[in-house]
Amino acid sequence: VVISAMAPQSSINLADCAYAGLTGAVGAIPGTLCAHPLDVLKIRMQTTTSGSYHQAVQHIMRNNGYRGFYAGIRPGIEQRFLQRGPMFFVSEAYTQVVTKYTGLEGLSARYSASVASGYTVGFLGGIAEYRKKLLSQQIMTVEQASWRNLSKACLNPATRAGILRRFHGAGLCAAVYDSTFFGTQLSLSSAGLPAPLSFGGAAAAAVCIGFIPDAAVARMLVIPPSQAVVTFPRMCMQVVKPGILSGFRGLPARVGEYFVSYFVTGCVAAAVAFLR
User: Fold this and answer.
1) CB environment 156-173: b (16+ within 10 A), e (fewer)
2) pLDDT per residue over 35-79, tens digit each?
């Protein structure tokens, strides 16, 4: 299964876009259920500056027991569903537009289009990602982090600039991730790997490339709306300030989370392709 890099055509093929979006959205549900505990662990590692995985697990267990690994699962599914459906749909649509109007094809078209589509979807999906992180790390209560209250924060002149700064960081991070993911997935699939492995392998590669930007965004998104936040480049510098290796805290958990999640999404993609 390949999330296609379109040949030149005269119009946008909405059926291919819908197929890609369906794959991403539906596959995100079981993928998130399987991988969420690793996401909680990864966020804990990214948002702290010391402590081992064992200590992070102990912290989660001490506060909430095993249920702590599924804290924020509902907004996690919401966020992944709302993010990955558009992520796959918009990447396919942008790739077709790039192919049609620039003459780029194959990997070049997919990569360049996914930079733009990644920023678009990452920025627009920032509020869902923000809500998930606030709840999974128990920074705010469900009521405090409700869609209504976060929407009010987006419109409040006192907090609007900080919220947009967070979402801009999320968009830049997604641009790095999506371009790496879709470009690598196309390459692996073209080399003959089955969908689960091409999806999982591409996700693992994208996580490694985009991990420091992701860590910076994670730190920005665990700060409540009422508190000021630094710019995305400055936060990236803070992530690596103690040493370059400190910027990769939580990387094994993140790679495991995304490989599992996208492996499951690849299984869904194979099933959808078979039924299509």
Assistant:
1) eeebeebbebbbbbbbbb
2) 888 888 887 887 776 778 888 888 888 888 888 888 888 888 887
Helix, strand or coil for residue 120? helix
Share of the chain above pLDDT 90, in %: 57
pTM: 0.79
The reported pLDDT for the residue numbered 10 is 52
Burial class (CB in 10 A: 0-12, 13-18, 19+), 106: middle
For residues 213 and 79, the model is more confident at 213
CA 6, CA 13: separation in Å to the nearest integer?
A: 9
Residues in contact with 220: Cβ distance below 8 Å, sequence separation at least 6, in sequence order: 165, 166, 169, 229, 230, 232, 235
* Distances 206 to 12, 146, 165, 213 between C-alpha atoms, Å: 27, 30, 23, 11
In angstroms, rounded to a whole number, what is the distance separating the alpha carbons of residues 131 and 184? Answer: 29
199, with CB counted inside 10 A (0-12, 13-18, 19+), is buried
* Cβ contact 213:194 at 8 Å: no
Tracing tokens 């009521």 back to the chain, one arrives at 143
